[in-house]
Design goal:
With 329 residues, this protein is of the alpha/beta class. It is 49% helix and 10% strand.
Length: 329
Amino acid sequence: MPLEIVRNDITRMEVDAIVNAANETLLGGGGVDGAIHRAAGPELLAECRTLGGCPTGQAKITRGYRLPCSYVIHTVGPIWHGGKHGEEQLLVSCYRNSLELAKQNNCESVAFPLISSGAYGYPKDAALKVATDTIRDFLMENDMLVYIVVFDRASFHISGKLYARVAQYIDDNYVDVHGDSTLLRSRRMRQAQFMDMDCIQEASCVPNSLENALQMLDESFSQMVLRKIDEAGIKDSVCYKRANLDRKLFSKIRNNVNYQPSKPTALALAVALELDISETAELLQKAGLALSHSYKFDVIIEYCILNGIYDVNTINQTLFDFDQPLLGA
């Protein structure tokens, strides 16, 4: 199952378990910790008193009480001291131990805050990379729906350099649907000219009946995906997990030659298979879709593919920062 980044209040997440960024006492505090204790009620604190605290990097589990989740997994993130005191290893341990606890308790869904990125001072972009990398590695071997929950835009940013490059690419390529009508009309005229030329060149290939036309169908979207998987020499599970797709959704693609994907699903598979821009356009065409400079979502995906960015988490972080739909999830 996929990793999703959402903007929400973690105490309202309807999942099997939420993760609490706690302190070593497990007796409540400020920020996310305090919010979770307030929402769960005094019973949570009473159970936490029986746990004897928790070392940094470790995790312990309690019931969820008045929260809309069954469990609260309490983990203690590292305080940032410049990055040379084992902070990254401890933060990785927080996510790994929390995920293992969720697995041991048969949780199918879990929601994380961005651990240590608040009062503990861990740089948000670095904290996010640790979170997504560690969760991705876990999901390559396990099926679980995992959320990273951020409360507001100020809590989340991709790296400044990547943001600036993508923003510049959008400025250079994005066509506002309410923009210069003359420019849009000119583009449409050029496209129509090319279409007319194609029609002339292909006239001799036009079938003389509907029955003949239906017998000349091209390779379908599903067939192309499966062919590309075989050519890449990877397993289905590697492909759909790289694409941030649910196993059940991928089974529909494998078992239905006429499956019609959404654009985020089709592009997620293009990214997972590391298709270049022409191959991506071909895959989209198989599903009756296309990239367009009229949509920021499409422009961002195009930028990533042209620049060899095929990590779905990096792409989704970029899409999230520009308020666009995510791939796969």
